[in-house]
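Researcher: We're teaching a course module on how sequence relates to structure. For the next exercise, students receive a sequence and then see the predicted structure as tokens, so they can try to spot secondary structure elements on their own. Here is the exercise chain.
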Amino acid sequence: MKQFTIKKPWGLFLEFTLNEKSTVKILEIAPQEMLSLQSHRKRAEFWYVLEGSPTIVLNTKTKKYQPGETIKVKTGMKHRIINKTGKRVRILEIATGNFDENDIIRYQDKYQRIKNK
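Model: And here is the predicted structure for the students to work with:
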């Protein structure tokens, strides 16, 4: 997935997908909270930071992001969003592939949602 900036006489718009099967969400991570360290077998995700300064883990790399930055999460890649700040984090998520909320493999989870195999 590639982000395009399309300029118009009135300003511009950012285009993330075009005629592509996808599931679109806005994730809101409360202050001092985090998602589980997880991966997906059947989908990839594209994230666009809308608000806040999330710390994002992609496999073994950890980096802090700012609004307007994008992140690509490939199928099978371990990933996590962490909000270490006192303000909310909002991220636009566009998932492509076969979207299913049960397609989550959790490796670490502070809410004890890891299922025994």
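Model: If you want an answer key for the exercise: The chain has a mean pLDDT of 93. The chain is about 0% helix and 50% strand.
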